[in-house]
Amino acid sequence: MFTSRFAFRPPPLPDELLSSWIQRTATGMLFLPYAFVHTYWQSEPPVLSRDIDLLGDPRVIAGMAVGTGTNPAVAASTTLTAFDGRLFADCGARGIYPWVLPVGVRNRDRKLPGQQYCPHCLSSDERPYLRKQWRLAVMSVCVVHSQVLLDRCSRCASPLMPFRSRALHVCWNCNRDLRHAKGQPPNQDAIRFNALADDALHAGWGRLGASTFHYSPILFSVLRQLGRNIISGPRSQRLRTVLGRQTDISDRPFNFEGGREEVEFLSSAERHRMHALIMALADNWPYNYVSSMSEAGMWHSWALRDMRSVPFALRTIVDQGLRPRTYSPPVEEVRAAARYLAKRRIGVSGRDLRRLIGDSIHTQEALATIAAPTLAAELEPPEFVSLPQD
């Protein structure tokens, strides 16, 4: 590890990503980003062959801290692991980090549009840079400028690749100035979702209707499951249709980037639509959630589909509101049914009763009251119980 300072020593800007910080440092020293990284950290193991913002290399973080004279803790906060304990819990090595957009690094290229940006923010920056929140799937709206975030070049549709760009506000492929891209006005429900997410990220807790989540990763876990119910699964279309009748949001199927049907693999426009639908589903929590899910026939097993760790706050609501109720005829109804059958034949069995009125916890009790006690426990055919006539 080198111990000398860089010739150009910019500190990280507020909410700046590590990749953005490295790119600004490299260009300030008249380096290409790849040449800068290779010069100071060599290439074994390769630094830029993975998502450096998510899996921040300790060598690079420590080197940037030393080279720019930045506090090591501040340098470490430029990676997405800074959201551990606020967006997700137990950050570790796994295929998908909840609510973190993948960039699909392959041979130093980015195959997925996981880096979002706001043209207005880049235009207003004295030194354009990329924010950490722009890598989060809970964000689809710039909370400052109220514009839908973009995730591709507006001219050539290429995903952003900071290390291939001559500047952070320039497309690496066609050299278009990203600051000139035109954003779309956001959906009001999606704005509310983004405001909810932004508040929870900063405070570490949040509210959903009358429910208070004192640990924000639990809130985000619940919101993610609602999103998964909406975007994929055999009954998701039913749920989208129900929500579409409540709002003006399209219920068309979702298109995924990268082949995985998860909330992190949606384009910014599709996630924006998902955010609006999630907020519609969560309105007046949990009452609209239960009624909409019930109307769509999305019961307990569908609501919690593929959710490995179910928060108590969600399980309680699902157990109480989304378990189909089974009707059990009362004892008086069972007795009346038995007498009805007895009037039309010489006997009645437990099977006859079940065929007529369904299963009941009172079947045995009813038979014991009106039939011979020794035959009351007999609930299965083929014998019949002769009943006294009224």
Secondary-structure blueprint:
Layout: H1 18-28, H2 33-41, H3 58-68, H4 72-76, E1 105-106, E2 109-110, H5 119-124, E3 141-142, E4 147-148, H6 188-203, E5 206-208, E6 211-213, H7 216-231, H8 236-246, H9 268-282, H10 287-295, H11 300-303, H12 312-321, H13 331-344, H14 350-357, H15 363-370
Summarize the structure in words.
- With 390 residues, this protein is mainly alpha-helical.
- Among the domains are: 1-82, no CATH class; 199-322, no CATH class; 331-371.
- 39% of the residues lie in helices and 4% in strands.
- It is built from 15 helices and six strands.
- The protein has helices at 18-28, 33-41, 58-68, 72-76, 119-124, 188-203, 216-231, 236-246, 268-282, 287-295, 300-303, 312-321, 331-344, 350-357, 363-370; strands spanning 105-106, 109-110, 141-142, 147-148, 206-208, 211-213.
- The strands form three sheets. The chain has a two-stranded antiparallel ribbon with strand order 1-2.
- A hairpin with a 2-residue loop joins strand 5 and strand 6.
- The chain is elongated, with a radius of gyration of 30 Å.
- Residues 372-388 have low confidence and may be disordered.
Structure in a nutshell:
It contains 15 helices and six strands.
What distinguishing features does this structure have?
two-stranded antiparallel ribbon, two-stranded antiparallel sheet, mainly alpha, single chain, 390 residues
